[in-house]
Amino acid sequence: MKLFDDFYVYPWTSYQENNCNTIFIDGPVPTLIDPGHSHLFNHVVEGMARDGKSADTIKLIVCTHSHPDHIEALDHFDNGVLRAISREEHGYLQEEGKELFLMSGCQAPKKPFKLFLKEGQLTLGDKTLQVIPTPGHSPGSICLYWEKERVLISGDTAFYMGVGRTDLPGGDMAALGQSIRRLAKFRIEYLIPGHGEMVRGDKPIKRNFELILGEFF
Ligand SMILES: [Zn+2]
Q1: What distance in angstroms lies between residue 35's CA and the mean position of ligand 1's atoms?
Q2: 22-45 b/e with 16+ CB inside 10 Å = b?
Q3: Mean per-residue pLDDT for 62-85?
Q4: 168 CA distance to ligand 1 centroid (A)?
Q5: Which residues surround ligand 1, an ion (CB under 5 A)?
Q6: Which domains, from first to last, does the chain contain?
Q7: What pLDDT, on the 0 to 100 scale, is given for residue 107?
Q8: What was the pLDDT predicted at 185?
Q9: Chain-wide mean pLDDT for the chain?
């Protein structure tokens, strides 16, 4: 689904099976954000094909965090595709984060991450995303903010009417609260979470942050 020129969202809408929302940013550095589960990756391939795009063009994959439902499909890509994650999350994936793959019977990605994201700017051709560390759901979770169109890609930190769970290994409710309070200060017109519905419009998004901060923290 095209949201802007060169910016596509592939939401996961099935209630039968867990998977994440995936984003594709086209341009000089075709980039995929959160590929999702391996056995469900075809929905991204098909969605891209409907938009006249090919998953074979992808050069960079950015992961908001390392949970299996967001990154298992990384191994679908060959070694020429650059994989990016925060350094904190990479360390977590080598230790307690790995347990989640064992617990869920998923394969941890074998091909290496070579780009480690930290607070600051990630330039993809003519688009600049701001990398915002948002620990809580996992130790090295990040969100991505595209200031030009006021888009926040919030991973599993903030959802429509909800927040990421903190009962998994590495979860931290106090850290999640701080991360969400930080996000609530951004001017956002499109909130694209890692699961569930997108929220559109400055006011509904402000209300959503007020609601989740009031309810969970
Ligand atoms: Zn997660």
Answers
A1: 13
A2: bbbbbeebbbbbbbbbbebbebbe
A3: 97
A4: 9
A5: 67, 156
A6: 2-216 (3.60.15.10)
A7: 87
A8: 97
A9: 97
Distance in Å, CA 69 to ligand 1 centroid: 7
Q: Which two tokens stand for residue 120?
A: 């600051």
Asked if residue 157 lies in contact with residue 176, where contact means CB atoms within 8 angstroms, the answer is yes
Q: pTM of the prediction?
A: 0.97
Mean pLDDT of 5-15: 96
Q: How close is the Cα of 155 to the center of ligand 1, in Å?
A: 7
- Ligand 1 centroid–CA 203 distance in Å is 26
- How does 131-165 read in b/e, with b if 16+ C-beta sit within 10 Å? bbbbbbbbbbbbbbbbeeeebbbbbbbbbbebbbe
Contacts of 207 by beta carbon, 8 Å cutoff, 6+ apart: none
pLDDT interval class at 118 (50, 70, 90):
very high
Cα-based distances in Å from 5 to 42, 57, 123, 126: 23, 17, 16, 12
Fill in the amino acid letter for 28: P
Strand segments, DSSP code E, in the chain are 2-4, 7-10, 22-25, 31-33, 60-62, 82-86, 115-117, 120-124, 127-133, 142-146, 151-155, 158-159, 162-163, 190-193, 199-200
Distance 170 CA to ligand 1 centre (A): 11
- How many whole angstroms from 70 Cα to the centroid of ligand 1? 7
Look at residue 164 and give its three-state secondary structure.
coil
